Amino acid sequence: MNRAGLVVLFAALLALTCCGHENKSSGKAANADPTPKVEAARVMTQKLAITVHLPGELEPYEAVAIFPKVTGFVKWIGVDRGSRVKSGQLIIRLEAPELVAQRAEAQAKLQGAEAQLASAQAKVASDESTYQHLKAAAATPGVVAGNDLFISGKVADADRAQVIAQQENVGAAKQAFKAISETEAYLQVSAPFDGIVTERNVHPGALVGPAGTPMVRIETLSRLRVIVPIPQTYIAGVPEGAAVSFTVPAFPGQTFTGTIARIAHSLDVKTRTMPVELEVTNPTGQLSPGTFCDVLWPVRRPDATMFVPSSSVMTTLERVFVIRIRDGKADWVDVKTGATVDKLIEVFGDLHEGDVVAARGTDELRPGTSVSAVYH
After folding, report:
1. Are residues 118 and 176 in the same domain?
2. What is the Cα–Cα distance from 43 to 41, expressed in whole angstroms?
3. Helix (H) / strand (E) containing 373
4. Looking at residue 339, what is its pLDDT?
5. Are residues 278 and 243 in the same domain?
6. What is the phi/psi pair of residue 247, to 5°?
7. How far apart, in whole angstroms, are the C-alpha atoms of residue 37 and residue 374?
8. Domain that holds residue 123
9. What letter would DSSP give residue 312?
10. Exposed site from 43, 51, 52, 128, fewest CB < 10 Å?
11. Do 172 and 113 have their domain in common?
Protein backbone atom coordinates (compact mmCIF):
# COMPACT_ATOMS: atom_id res chain seq x y z
CA MET A 1 0.00 0.00 0.00
CA ASN A 2 1.35 3.35 -1.00
CA ARG A 3 1.72 6.35 1.22
CA ALA A 4 -1.51 8.01 0.05
CA GLY A 5 -3.55 4.95 1.00
CA LEU A 6 -2.13 4.91 4.51
CA VAL A 7 -3.12 8.50 5.00
CA VAL A 8 -6.70 7.81 3.90
CA LEU A 9 -6.95 4.76 6.19
CA PHE A 10 -5.70 6.70 9.22
CA ALA A 11 -8.22 9.50 8.61
CA ALA A 12 -11.08 7.01 8.45
CA LEU A 13 -10.07 5.33 11.74
CA LEU A 14 -9.83 8.73 13.45
CA ALA A 15 -13.32 9.69 12.29
CA LEU A 16 -14.79 6.42 13.58
CA THR A 17 -13.16 6.93 16.99
CA CYS A 18 -14.53 10.47 17.36
CA CYS A 19 -17.99 9.32 16.37
CA GLY A 20 -17.84 6.61 19.02
CA HIS A 21 -16.95 9.10 21.74
CA GLU A 22 -19.70 11.44 20.63
CA ASN A 23 -22.26 8.63 20.71
CA LYS A 24 -21.22 7.65 24.27
CA SER A 25 -21.35 11.26 25.46
CA SER A 26 -24.73 11.73 23.86
CA GLY A 27 -26.01 8.58 25.58
CA LYS A 28 -24.81 9.72 28.98
CA ALA A 29 -26.34 13.14 28.46
CA ALA A 30 -29.62 11.57 27.45
CA ASN A 31 -29.69 9.31 30.55
CA ALA A 32 -28.70 12.03 33.11
CA ASP A 33 -31.64 13.58 35.13
CA PRO A 34 -30.87 17.15 36.36
CA THR A 35 -33.71 17.10 39.02
CA PRO A 36 -32.60 15.59 42.39
CA LYS A 37 -34.77 12.90 43.91
CA VAL A 38 -35.92 13.37 47.54
CA GLU A 39 -37.42 10.70 49.74
CA ALA A 40 -40.85 12.01 50.72
CA ALA A 41 -43.78 11.29 53.05
CA ARG A 42 -47.33 12.57 53.34
CA VAL A 43 -48.79 14.60 56.19
CA MET A 44 -51.37 12.54 58.04
CA THR A 45 -53.99 13.47 60.64
CA GLN A 46 -55.10 11.43 63.64
CA LYS A 47 -56.38 11.89 67.19
CA LEU A 48 -53.62 11.85 69.75
CA ALA A 49 -54.08 9.26 72.49
CA ILE A 50 -50.84 8.33 74.22
CA THR A 51 -49.42 7.91 77.70
CA VAL A 52 -46.30 9.79 78.76
CA HIS A 53 -44.12 9.53 81.85
CA LEU A 54 -44.10 12.67 83.99
CA PRO A 55 -42.49 13.31 87.39
CA GLY A 56 -44.74 13.90 90.38
CA GLU A 57 -44.47 14.33 94.14
CA LEU A 58 -46.60 12.94 96.93
CA GLU A 59 -47.86 15.44 99.49
CA PRO A 60 -50.19 15.04 102.49
CA TYR A 61 -53.77 16.09 101.87
CA GLU A 62 -53.62 18.21 105.04
CA ALA A 63 -50.54 19.39 106.90
CA VAL A 64 -50.22 21.89 109.72
CA ALA A 65 -47.46 23.14 111.98
CA ILE A 66 -48.81 23.61 115.52
CA PHE A 67 -47.73 26.86 117.20
CA PRO A 68 -48.92 28.02 120.64
CA LYS A 69 -51.33 30.96 120.55
CA VAL A 70 -49.92 32.33 123.80
CA THR A 71 -46.50 32.38 125.37
CA GLY A 72 -46.06 29.78 128.08
CA PHE A 73 -44.19 26.75 129.33
CA VAL A 74 -44.80 23.20 128.14
CA LYS A 75 -46.29 21.41 131.12
CA TRP A 76 -47.14 18.14 129.36
CA ILE A 77 -46.89 16.73 125.84
CA GLY A 78 -48.59 13.45 125.01
CA VAL A 79 -47.38 12.76 121.45
CA ASP A 80 -44.12 12.12 119.66
CA ARG A 81 -43.00 11.60 116.09
CA GLY A 82 -45.11 8.79 114.59
CA SER A 83 -48.02 9.17 117.03
CA ARG A 84 -51.48 8.91 115.46
CA VAL A 85 -53.96 11.49 116.69
CA LYS A 86 -57.69 12.10 116.35
CA SER A 87 -59.42 15.41 115.72
CA GLY A 88 -59.91 17.29 119.03
CA GLN A 89 -57.50 15.05 120.95
CA LEU A 90 -55.50 16.89 123.65
CA ILE A 91 -51.84 16.66 122.70
CA ILE A 92 -50.08 19.45 124.63
CA ARG A 93 -50.81 21.29 127.86
CA LEU A 94 -49.13 24.62 128.59
CA GLU A 95 -48.98 26.77 131.70
CA ALA A 96 -48.74 30.56 131.98
CA PRO A 97 -48.81 31.97 135.57
CA GLU A 98 -49.45 35.50 134.33
CA LEU A 99 -52.71 34.36 132.71
CA VAL A 100 -53.88 33.01 136.06
CA ALA A 101 -53.24 36.40 137.65
CA GLN A 102 -54.99 38.19 134.77
CA ARG A 103 -57.97 35.90 135.12
CA ALA A 104 -58.22 36.54 138.88
CA GLU A 105 -57.99 40.30 138.27
CA ALA A 106 -60.68 40.19 135.59
CA GLN A 107 -62.93 38.15 137.86
CA ALA A 108 -62.47 40.62 140.72
CA LYS A 109 -63.33 43.54 138.41
CA LEU A 110 -66.45 41.73 137.25
CA GLN A 111 -67.56 41.11 140.83
CA GLY A 112 -66.90 44.77 141.73
CA ALA A 113 -68.92 45.98 138.73
CA GLU A 114 -71.80 43.68 139.67
CA ALA A 115 -71.73 44.98 143.27
CA GLN A 116 -71.85 48.59 142.05
CA LEU A 117 -74.74 47.71 139.78
CA ALA A 118 -76.63 46.15 142.65
CA SER A 119 -76.02 49.26 144.77
CA ALA A 120 -77.20 51.53 141.95
CA GLN A 121 -80.31 49.42 141.43
CA ALA A 122 -81.11 49.59 145.18
CA LYS A 123 -80.67 53.37 145.21
CA VAL A 124 -82.87 53.87 142.16
CA ALA A 125 -85.56 51.71 143.77
CA SER A 126 -85.42 53.78 146.97
CA ASP A 127 -85.43 57.14 145.20
CA GLU A 128 -88.18 56.03 142.85
CA SER A 129 -90.31 55.02 145.85
CA THR A 130 -89.70 58.38 147.48
CA TYR A 131 -90.68 60.19 144.32
CA GLN A 132 -93.90 58.21 144.02
CA HIS A 133 -94.86 59.01 147.65
CA LEU A 134 -94.20 62.71 147.18
CA LYS A 135 -96.14 62.68 143.97
CA ALA A 136 -99.13 61.06 145.69
CA ALA A 137 -98.95 63.54 148.57
CA ALA A 138 -98.70 66.44 146.16
CA ALA A 139 -102.21 65.65 145.02
CA THR A 140 -103.35 67.45 148.19
CA PRO A 141 -102.62 71.16 147.86
CA GLY A 142 -100.07 72.58 150.32
CA VAL A 143 -98.79 69.21 151.61
CA VAL A 144 -95.65 68.95 149.43
CA ALA A 145 -93.73 71.81 147.96
CA GLY A 146 -93.50 71.69 144.18
CA ASN A 147 -89.72 72.14 144.27
CA ASP A 148 -89.28 69.10 146.50
CA LEU A 149 -91.25 66.96 144.05
CA PHE A 150 -89.16 68.25 141.14
CA ILE A 151 -85.88 67.49 142.91
CA SER A 152 -87.05 64.00 143.87
CA GLY A 153 -87.92 63.26 140.22
CA LYS A 154 -84.52 64.41 139.00
CA VAL A 155 -82.77 62.28 141.61
CA ALA A 156 -84.69 59.23 140.41
CA ASP A 157 -83.74 60.01 136.81
CA ALA A 158 -80.08 60.30 137.78
CA ASP A 159 -80.25 56.99 139.59
CA ARG A 160 -81.69 55.30 136.52
CA ALA A 161 -78.87 56.71 134.37
CA GLN A 162 -76.37 55.44 136.92
CA VAL A 163 -77.91 51.96 136.70
CA ILE A 164 -77.49 51.98 132.90
CA ALA A 165 -73.86 53.03 133.27
CA GLN A 166 -73.22 50.28 135.81
CA GLN A 167 -74.87 47.72 133.52
CA GLU A 168 -72.46 48.72 130.75
CA ASN A 169 -69.54 48.39 133.17
CA VAL A 170 -70.70 44.90 134.09
CA GLY A 171 -70.95 43.99 130.38
CA ALA A 172 -67.43 45.25 129.72
CA ALA A 173 -66.09 43.36 132.74
CA LYS A 174 -67.79 40.18 131.52
CA GLN A 175 -66.20 40.56 128.08
CA ALA A 176 -62.77 41.09 129.63
CA PHE A 177 -63.20 38.04 131.84
CA LYS A 178 -64.40 35.99 128.85
CA ALA A 179 -61.39 37.08 126.78
CA ILE A 180 -59.00 36.03 129.54
CA SER A 181 -60.81 32.71 129.92
CA GLU A 182 -60.62 32.04 126.18
CA THR A 183 -56.94 32.95 126.14
CA GLU A 184 -56.41 30.58 129.04
CA ALA A 185 -58.14 27.87 127.00
CA TYR A 186 -55.32 28.19 124.45
CA LEU A 187 -53.08 26.52 127.00
CA GLN A 188 -54.84 23.28 126.02
CA VAL A 189 -53.58 22.34 122.50
CA SER A 190 -55.66 19.82 120.53
CA ALA A 191 -55.18 18.06 117.20
CA PRO A 192 -57.03 19.90 114.39
CA PHE A 193 -57.72 16.73 112.37
CA ASP A 194 -57.03 13.01 112.22
CA GLY A 195 -53.43 12.40 111.26
CA ILE A 196 -49.96 11.47 112.34
CA VAL A 197 -47.29 13.51 114.11
CA THR A 198 -44.35 13.85 111.74
CA GLU A 199 -42.28 16.31 113.77
CA ARG A 200 -41.82 17.17 117.46
CA ASN A 201 -39.58 20.02 118.59
CA VAL A 202 -40.39 20.68 122.28
CA HIS A 203 -40.24 18.91 125.62
CA PRO A 204 -41.78 19.62 129.06
CA GLY A 205 -40.39 22.80 130.60
CA ALA A 206 -39.64 24.49 127.30
CA LEU A 207 -40.71 28.10 126.85
CA VAL A 208 -42.77 28.45 123.67
CA GLY A 209 -44.51 31.31 121.89
CA PRO A 210 -46.44 32.17 118.74
CA ALA A 211 -43.23 32.94 116.83
CA GLY A 212 -40.35 30.56 116.26
CA THR A 213 -40.26 26.79 115.79
CA PRO A 214 -43.54 24.87 115.72
CA MET A 215 -44.13 22.53 118.65
CA VAL A 216 -45.31 19.64 116.47
CA ARG A 217 -46.31 19.03 112.87
CA ILE A 218 -49.32 16.90 111.96
CA GLU A 219 -50.08 15.46 108.52
CA THR A 220 -52.91 13.44 107.03
CA LEU A 221 -51.53 10.20 105.61
CA SER A 222 -54.73 8.32 104.84
CA ARG A 223 -55.38 10.75 102.01
CA LEU A 224 -52.62 12.13 99.80
CA ARG A 225 -52.10 14.48 96.88
CA VAL A 226 -49.84 13.78 93.91
CA ILE A 227 -48.67 17.09 92.43
CA VAL A 228 -47.88 16.72 88.71
CA PRO A 229 -46.51 19.65 86.66
CA ILE A 230 -48.03 19.16 83.19
CA PRO A 231 -46.07 20.70 80.26
CA GLN A 232 -48.08 23.10 78.14
CA THR A 233 -47.85 20.65 75.23
CA TYR A 234 -50.00 18.16 77.14
CA ILE A 235 -52.55 20.39 78.89
CA ALA A 236 -55.25 20.22 76.22
CA GLY A 237 -58.03 17.82 77.08
CA VAL A 238 -56.97 17.12 80.67
CA PRO A 239 -59.47 14.43 81.71
CA GLU A 240 -60.67 15.66 85.12
CA GLY A 241 -61.98 12.77 87.22
CA ALA A 242 -60.03 10.16 85.28
CA ALA A 243 -57.91 7.53 87.01
CA VAL A 244 -54.15 7.89 86.56
CA SER A 245 -51.51 5.30 87.47
CA PHE A 246 -48.14 6.00 89.04
CA THR A 247 -45.20 4.17 90.56
CA VAL A 248 -42.78 4.98 93.39
CA PRO A 249 -39.16 3.86 93.81
CA ALA A 250 -39.88 2.31 97.21
CA PHE A 251 -42.17 -0.33 95.68
CA PRO A 252 -40.70 -1.37 92.32
CA GLY A 253 -43.10 -3.30 90.14
CA GLN A 254 -46.15 -2.08 92.06
CA THR A 255 -48.59 0.37 90.47
CA PHE A 256 -50.79 2.81 92.40
CA THR A 257 -53.80 4.77 91.21
CA GLY A 258 -55.03 8.30 91.82
CA THR A 259 -57.89 10.41 90.51
CA ILE A 260 -57.46 13.77 88.79
CA ALA A 261 -59.14 16.00 91.37
CA ARG A 262 -57.83 19.57 91.00
CA ILE A 263 -56.48 21.48 87.98
CA ALA A 264 -54.79 24.86 88.36
CA HIS A 265 -56.00 26.13 84.95
CA SER A 266 -53.00 28.48 84.93
CA LEU A 267 -49.43 27.98 83.76
CA ASP A 268 -46.36 28.64 85.86
CA VAL A 269 -44.58 31.35 83.83
CA LYS A 270 -41.17 30.08 84.92
CA THR A 271 -41.57 26.44 83.95
CA ARG A 272 -44.49 26.66 81.49
CA THR A 273 -46.23 23.84 83.30
CA MET A 274 -49.67 23.56 84.88
CA PRO A 275 -49.92 21.98 88.36
CA VAL A 276 -52.48 19.17 88.52
CA GLU A 277 -53.40 17.24 91.66
CA LEU A 278 -54.26 13.57 91.88
CA GLU A 279 -56.14 12.44 94.97
CA VAL A 280 -54.88 9.15 96.41
CA THR A 281 -56.30 7.04 99.22
CA ASN A 282 -53.63 5.62 101.51
CA PRO A 283 -55.50 3.77 104.29
CA THR A 284 -52.52 1.66 105.38
CA GLY A 285 -50.01 4.50 105.24
CA GLN A 286 -47.93 2.61 102.70
CA LEU A 287 -47.11 5.72 100.68
CA SER A 288 -45.10 8.50 102.30
CA PRO A 289 -45.40 12.25 101.62
CA GLY A 290 -42.36 13.76 99.96
CA THR A 291 -41.80 10.73 97.74
CA PHE A 292 -41.12 11.34 94.06
CA CYS A 293 -43.19 9.23 91.69
CA ASP A 294 -43.41 8.39 88.00
CA VAL A 295 -46.87 9.33 86.71
CA LEU A 296 -48.30 7.65 83.59
CA TRP A 297 -50.11 10.70 82.26
CA PRO A 298 -52.77 10.24 79.54
CA VAL A 299 -52.38 12.73 76.69
CA ARG A 300 -55.51 13.32 74.63
CA ARG A 301 -56.50 15.79 71.91
CA PRO A 302 -60.17 16.69 71.40
CA ASP A 303 -59.56 17.03 67.64
CA ALA A 304 -57.34 15.30 65.09
CA THR A 305 -53.91 16.87 64.58
CA MET A 306 -51.20 16.54 61.91
CA PHE A 307 -48.24 14.19 62.07
CA VAL A 308 -45.07 13.84 60.01
CA PRO A 309 -42.02 11.58 60.42
CA SER A 310 -39.79 12.81 63.21
CA SER A 311 -36.90 13.06 60.78
CA SER A 312 -38.89 15.54 58.64
CA VAL A 313 -38.58 18.30 61.25
CA MET A 314 -35.47 20.43 60.92
CA THR A 315 -34.39 22.63 63.82
CA THR A 316 -31.93 25.50 63.46
CA LEU A 317 -31.03 28.41 65.69
CA GLU A 318 -33.57 30.57 63.90
CA ARG A 319 -36.52 28.33 63.08
CA VAL A 320 -38.18 24.93 63.18
CA PHE A 321 -39.52 23.81 59.81
CA VAL A 322 -40.38 21.01 57.41
CA ILE A 323 -39.71 20.97 53.68
CA ARG A 324 -42.93 20.75 51.72
CA ILE A 325 -42.75 19.61 48.11
CA ARG A 326 -45.39 21.25 45.94
CA ASP A 327 -45.40 21.43 42.11
CA GLY A 328 -41.89 19.99 42.05
CA LYS A 329 -40.47 22.79 44.21
CA ALA A 330 -39.13 22.72 47.77
CA ASP A 331 -40.68 25.11 50.30
CA TRP A 332 -39.81 25.68 53.95
CA VAL A 333 -42.85 25.69 56.27
CA ASP A 334 -42.42 26.84 59.87
CA VAL A 335 -44.02 24.50 62.41
CA LYS A 336 -44.36 23.96 66.12
CA THR A 337 -43.95 20.47 67.45
CA GLY A 338 -46.07 18.57 69.93
CA ALA A 339 -46.13 14.99 71.15
CA THR A 340 -44.13 12.14 69.65
CA VAL A 341 -45.84 8.88 68.75
CA ASP A 342 -43.44 6.10 67.72
CA LYS A 343 -41.59 7.53 64.67
CA LEU A 344 -44.10 10.34 64.09
CA ILE A 345 -44.20 13.78 65.61
CA GLU A 346 -47.14 16.13 66.02
CA VAL A 347 -46.77 19.42 64.12
CA PHE A 348 -48.76 22.64 63.97
CA GLY A 349 -48.36 25.04 61.05
CA ASP A 350 -49.45 25.86 57.51
CA LEU A 351 -49.84 22.22 56.51
CA HIS A 352 -52.78 20.10 55.41
CA GLU A 353 -53.53 16.42 55.35
CA GLY A 354 -51.95 14.81 52.28
CA ASP A 355 -49.25 17.46 51.80
CA VAL A 356 -45.93 16.00 50.66
CA VAL A 357 -42.89 16.70 52.84
CA ALA A 358 -39.29 15.61 52.69
CA ALA A 359 -38.77 12.55 54.86
CA ARG A 360 -35.50 13.99 56.09
CA GLY A 361 -35.29 17.69 56.85
CA THR A 362 -32.10 19.53 55.89
CA ASP A 363 -31.21 23.18 55.44
CA GLU A 364 -29.15 22.23 52.36
CA LEU A 365 -32.33 21.86 50.32
CA ARG A 366 -33.10 25.52 49.82
CA PRO A 367 -36.58 26.95 49.12
CA GLY A 368 -37.42 27.01 45.41
CA THR A 369 -35.16 24.10 44.53
CA SER A 370 -36.63 21.74 41.92
CA VAL A 371 -37.00 18.24 43.38
CA SER A 372 -38.64 14.98 42.54
CA ALA A 373 -40.50 13.18 45.36
CA VAL A 374 -39.78 9.50 45.84
CA TYR A 375 -41.94 7.37 48.19
CA HIS A 376 -40.78 4.26 50.03
Report:
1. yes
2. 7
3. strand 372-375
4. 84
5. yes
6. -130, 160
7. 6
8. 97-186
9. G
10. 51
11. yes
